[in-house]
Design brief:
With 325 residues, the chain is of the alpha/beta class. The protein has helices spanning 2-9, 33-42, 60-72, 75-78, 92-106, 111-121, 161-167, 191-197, 208-217, 219-227, 248-254, 261-268, 285-290, 305-323; strands at 15-18, 24-26, 29-31, 127-130, 137-143, 156-160, 174-180, 201-203, 232-235, 238-239, 242-243, 274-277, 294-297. The strands form five sheets. Strands 8-9-12-13 form a four-stranded parallel β-sheet, with helices on both faces. A three-stranded antiparallel β-sheet has the order 6-5-7.
Amino acid sequence: MLRGLVAVLGEEAVTAIVNTGDDTILHGLYVSPDIDTVTYTLGGVGNPETGWGLSGETWAVMGALAGFEAATGGASSRAGGGAGLTWFNLGDQDLATHLYRTGRMATGASLSQVTAEVAARFGVRSRILPMSDERVETRVTVDLGEAATPFGGPGVVEVGFQEYFVGLRHGAPVTAVRFAGAEQALPAPGVVEALKEAEILVICPSNPVVSIGPVLSVPAIAEAVANRREDVVAVSPIVAGKALKGPADRMLAELGFEASVVGVAEMWSPFASVLVVDVADSHLAAEVEARGLRCAVAPSVMSGPVQAANLARAVLAAGAAAAGF
């Protein structure tokens, strides 16, 4: 979606406010997966096959760590501290980003300052803002049933987002999600100003619960978006009842929402005045509008840059119509 918007509007016209609830500490390094994915993607260096990390990546460090794991029979990880942790892959080039970020933050730089520096390093001219410089952590309660895993169990346990998404391969049923620290968190510098000054706000087609949810869990951000509701266009990540990527459909159902564009409409009705849905869901337009949003129908499966740009044009047109310009 960001690539499409940049293609239509130009890089400098786009500001991305990015989820940091996924952020985690691995090997003593501060890792910010969503910020890095956005940065690498807009910088043209992202890995198109995985959707994360850098293209042309090598894995020498992970290979060496796996050697330690094998030599100790996993004792290095079980001893705590994640010394031999290899369930979360960090490529060699990617590690440089995390080393730089961690070092800069250790000297007092904020996450937003470092994010701007990393974006400049990769030639990104769009503005990338973390939702907050303060720690907000997505915590997921899962039911592991009879399974015992490195992350807990058997039974119901609470884990960090990356443990759920990567470690457990988002396969365990979710019973609750919370955003630790969100109530006290302040938006990063520039976030509220960007929300107030933008001509159109776009809620991108990502997981409503754990990708967009953390951003809106910061009270001042939720208030700023709700205050601009007439200028907000959301794009459904659910097409014909399925998520195109990730567990959004299952997670919605597990948390009591309908896994459809109607369920998405219920979630976004306090924040958006328009929901863009795929043509496959055009028959649900009346149900979407019964939730208080105008429904705009457009091909929303972004299988390439042309499709992404076309969707961006449709989103912008829907936003312009809603805002009256």
